[in-house]
What does this fold into?
Amino acid sequence: MDVNEIRHRNFLLLLEQLAARGITRTKDAAQALGGLGSSYLSQLKGGKVMGDSVARRIEKATYKPHGWMDQPQWNVSGGKVADSVELDRTSEIEKLMQLLPSDERALLENYRAAGDAGKAAITTTSAAVEKQHMQPRRRA
It folds into this structure.
């Protein structure tokens, strides 16, 4: 099996993991996988060859170690791609996420899926709100 097939199967595995977290819309999944375009995600899903830069971008966005996309991360069971080993930080992060209240967990998941532009907007808004709360209140 060559690296292109391995990357494709790992990509499908990541899509399954996103779906398990409730990220099922193509646009949202594309953002969670490094800000890919929706149509490009669909092309990759259909078997388009994934280059090195895209593989590294997806690894970074999903907190996988460098080279993760190039090594088999699955076992085949019932015709579905299934995660066979949890050797990376993602499983630990997910365990910690489960300890958060559901509203805070949803906020973090949305932030992670927002992409660079969305994260910048969230950070700017958060800083503005924090600044507003730090200002002394005027008395009438």
Remarks:
- The radius of gyration is 18 Å.
